Amino acid sequence: MRPPLAPQDIDRIIEMAWEDRTPFEAIELQFGFPEKEVIALLRKHLKARSFRLWRRRTNGRATKHQALSRLKRGRFKSTRQKAIAGNKVSKR
Question: Which of 15, 45, 70, 85 has the fewest Cβ atoms surrounding its Cβ within 10 A?
């Protein structure tokens, strides 16, 4: 049995699961939660409607699985991202 997660870790796992380009493998590498456990965590901590929306959106999505993803190395970054973000950290 796993030790209980801190609330900020649960929030981060949910956030990573909602991100379209974050694969389940990245969540497993960082937190040790395989896909099935991430789904169980989301089912437990999200409202039923929010979980159904997430599940419908991510079901079969290639970017949520590294093996199916077209991006083998690195990550996708829009050429306009820096100009749009306005984030001072991204301009360094």
Answer: 70
